[in-house]
Amino acid sequence: MPQERTAVTVDGRRLDVSSLDKVLYPEAGFTKAAVLRYYGLVAPVLLPHLERRPATFLRCPGGVAGERFWAKRVPPGTPGWVTALRVPLHRATMDQVVVADLPTLIWAANLDTVEIHVPQWQTAPELHDRLVIDLDPGEGANLLHCCAAALAVRAALAEDRLEAWPKTSGAKGLHLSVPLRPAPAEAVSGYARALARRLSDAYPALLVHRMDKSLRRDRVLLDWSQNASAKTTVCPYSLRAGSRPTVSTPVGWAEVESCADPGELSFTADQVLDRVERQGDLWAPLLDPAAQAALPS
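RESULT FIELD:
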């Protein structure tokens, strides 16, 4: 059957959106229209974090419980006004979408995009302006373990004169992001690996830096590999494709310190919109060039 299409105008751009009644989150009854609404409302705080970064989309045409796939390349039929960035790929290149404005964000969401992921660099993959610490609980561990790990990471970074901002992964873990003066990708990845080893040696009962799942039981993986140029991390304010429409949400350090139950740091789309209305963008400082620190030599 043909998809039902509705013509809309977003900041002067004409778009055809389709299948607005499609339920993308069956357990929550959260429809495609709700996804488009969420991204439209959260755009003022989301878009600055996507600036000049090539986006990878997790598209879920069958909903979060059905067909899904990762999309990196600019798809056929992309409007000419959508910004693209040519990205190295092995010995070739590919064009990826840069979500540069609200029309592009709504266009992407209309492709059944649920999640948006970006790398730790802008424009040039050889220079990174972010260090990311991905804290992923293993079997037997949970978000409370991640909070304890985040505080240990924060203290270690402070010793190196680096400051991190936390956000939930939107699933089970936490992400810490450090704004950097652009530094060589190899140096950032090397520092992240050394930091992970240092912390796992200092807190062997809490942290592990090796990927082997047999080592991760009751511990938190400090995934330093997310700093590779080819890797991406879910962006702040992105929905996640779990059973509920949870969001990767910026949080304050006081929330991390006081968390007594994993549910305290789990936020749905509507809750995030309420937080933004009350608190603004807790990750706004990362966008200030003055916050960029030099990577320790």
